[in-house]
Amino acid sequence: MLFIMLANRTSAQVQKGKISGNITEANGTAVPGVTVALQELKDTTVKLYTASSSSGKFSFTNVNPGRYLLACSAIGYRPYKSLQLTIDTTRIVIILPVIVLQVAGKSLKEVVITASKPLVEHSIDRTTVNVDAMISAADSNALEVLGKSPGVYVYPNGNISLNGQGGVLVLIDDKPTYLSAQDLAAYLRSLPGGLLDKIELMTNPPARYDAAGSAIINIKLKKNRAAGLNGNVSAGFNAGEYIRSNDALNMNYRSGKFNAFANISWSRDANFTQNNSNRTFFQPDGTIASNLLVDSRYSYLSNGLNMRAGLDYFATPNTTIGLVLLGGLRPTSGRTVFNSMQQYPATGADTATSGYTNSGPHWYNGGISLNFQHQLDENGQSLSADLDHIQYHTSDDELTINTDETGTSQMQYQLPSTIQIYSVKSDYTLPLGTGAQFEAGLKSSWVTTGNNDQWFNNEDGAFVPDYTLSDHFVYQENINAAYMSAQKQWKRWGIKGGLRLENTRDDGHQLSNPAIPDSTFTKNYYSLFPSFYLSYKLDTAGNSTLGFMYSRRLHRPNYQQLNPYLAYQNQYTRTAGNPYLNPNFYEIYQLSYAYKQFFDISFAYINSNNDIYRITGLAGDIFITRPENFATNNSFNLHADVNVTPVNGWDINASGLFFHLLNKGEGYGTFINDAVTTGEVELFNEFHLDKNWSAEVNGSYHGPFHGGQTIAGASWGYGLALQRKLFNGNGSIRLRADNLFRNLIFNSRSIGIANVSNFATQQSDTSLAGVSFQYSFGKSANIRKRNHDIGAEDEQDRTK
Predict the structure, then answer these.
(1) What are the distances in angstroms from CA 694 to CA 136, 394, 740?
(2) 562 φ, ψ (degrees, to nearest 5)
(3) pLDDT tens digits for 476-507?
(4) Radius of gyration over alpha carbons of the chain, in Å?
(5) More exposed terminus of the chain, fewer Cβ within 10 Å: N or C?
(6) pTM as predicted
């Protein structure tokens, strides 16, 4: 009600304008599909794009005060450019006279109005990375592109952080994948960079998004909307120790009331992970009891095939009904080879163990989505709804063979798992006058996961079930949510506020077997999640802006973390889940200053409790690691982004994060209270050598990090890329090289494990060189934008 009254009281203040018109031929016939660009008068920079409808009409809304030109282009017609158009306090709405396009002569050359997108763009609640501006993205996969985005860090185990915040929720087209950290990383490696359009980074997401995750990373895939047949193809190849390939095809066909689209991608992914650990066990008096060296190398090869196809039906000019089908598969073959040596100084004895594990996980998924969009009026009032079903299946048969001084032992595992997701949601948008808007929505989701992990030991040549290590776990989750938000823009002030209510019900069931009793747990809780944004323009042109943001969020335990199953890693290492985990909550406060798109700096304070970390305890000389509500963390972050052009043709994007983290917690009787001041710096340079040649040089440094029981050392990396445009800009060939000197090594040590010190290093195949080719075909008339998304949107990163 406050927002509505404010909107009514300030209706006389001019903030945003509207420009509309109609396009015809000389005989009065409407011309659909005309590209209409609104350009700033001072430098003809394109600010907004649209296209004429089937009746030849077009409009631009929410136009900032200023002086503009209107440019129209369409194949077969001469280009058109208007006289000066001015939006100011005396002229809010401009209705243009009919624009008559003249048919071109014999040479029907296409006129295309282009504007080069910057790598990074900033708005009130997110930072957007335009992937096409990243030359090295062409032959990369989605995980590699993500790792090169400002503020994003991909850990060796697949976990992702944004601006130093872990527990990030990763969405694809606003929707979750419901995969574990390792499975999500594998899935992103199977998506070619040529499929990606942009990446949205949200440290304080608005209320319409699920409250899960300390921050949100939203990966937007490419979608073509032009009339006729259009598309693009990309093929990428790179090699380090292994050979990889990333290839994609995007196609769209629009005719009349129907629009069909599809993208298909194939990837060949291969890599290794080399782990070395040195564990020293001490007696209570401080003398060394034993020293354990464990070396392991995991290598794998997978072939990923992903498909997305759909159909839109434009029932009326204001109503669209859509269907989306998606699917994918990823067969993988892997092998882990490990060796260990345990030495006992007191006796001089030592014990050597060697072995290997063969694995062959097969992953596949499928889904269907029905969606509906209806424009209630020309002012932007709209209603949308989504109904979705997604399922994932994984099967893996593993065989482990250990050899030591006592002989050889064999173990076999069968690890099938399924995830079934149903989701329904609806969103409503209501403009409330000049610069004001109200949004509201509802969502319900139902998730069922099943793991039936079976363990067998070889006894006298036959594999016999080991029920003490087997596990059959079923988990069900139902989340019901409602939200509302409102925003208002004045001449200098801007405000946006939202409130989200979520109810979560969890039911876990570990089924009994001859060695494990039947057990269940149930959790049911309600939570409120407010978010608030306030901005103030320091000058009338809006070049300098101050901002304040606040939000409350949570990190739910993901599905696998709640599974109590004890998994075998090697003879000295086990991992397990914890059904007693509780969600941990975050409160984020942030002050910011921005100057245009050139400079952005923010200071944030983040408070969280019951943080979930993987905590290690001992069973003899075996490490057993499970997630615990371990820590209370307080973080003070200073983040800055700079986008400058020192000389014509040289663009620089620099990002720096400096933070102080207080890490407190208790695990297995040991109290940890430490702090670290550290930072991350990323530098991205793009050189436009001429109209066809461009180059890219990027580098990053990530300082030491403390979290839970782990202290990670610093790391750094770099990359080079070169691009040559072909076929009048419709195609390109690109070369790239990353970390050629094999310098990307991760070092860490463990703290808080009683009477044990542990040091580890990890390295993978990150030194590589590659080549890629891209080509776009078809018309460029962008008629009607649709978002071909799956509506099951907020449970994404929960199966870590």
Answers:
(1) 11, 43, 21
(2) -85, -10
(3) 999 999 999 999 988 889 899 999 999 999 99
(4) 28
(5) N
(6) 0.77
